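Chapter summary example.
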Amino acid sequence: MVHSVVGTSRKHYILWAEKYKNELGPNYLVEWRETGGKINMRFLENLKPLGLLVLRLALGIAFMFHGYPKLISDTPHWVQMMTKMGFPGYYAYIAGVVELFGGGLLVIGLFTRGAALLLAIEMGIALARVHIPAVGIYAVDKYELPLVFGAAALALATTGAGVISFDAFTFEGGRKAPKKPKA
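The structure predicted for these 183 residues follows.
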């Protein structure tokens, strides 16, 4: 039904809206604007909490997946890899803790801004000290994963966890101040 509105005149839109108003309800997604009959995409604004939840879950799971071997299953290999990359060996433990526990915090939506900022900084260091010097700035296909991880983590650090998180109830104003009684 939504696609039949695109490119129609105002008269046709009004007839269409009248025909389907009972099925669509008062808050249907297509709003008519005086912009040439285009579909208004403002309804996506209502999906921001869901989008932030999906971003947090996907990014958190991915970081946990990459942090687990550094900290638990393959630590000696990662200690050796860190020294080959020019870092002290104990950086494997630091990276493992940041990725595993930071990813977990992203998944549950607790301390999201701080965890995401640490993850973004880690990815920035990985890009600047390891990936880009090894392959060059133009070989984006060789460093796209830490680039996307860092950008997504920075986005979460700047926007916060959203309303579907523990942060919404604890740190980001989920509780409102009680109203003063009228005297």
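To summarize the output: Residues 47-170 form one domain.
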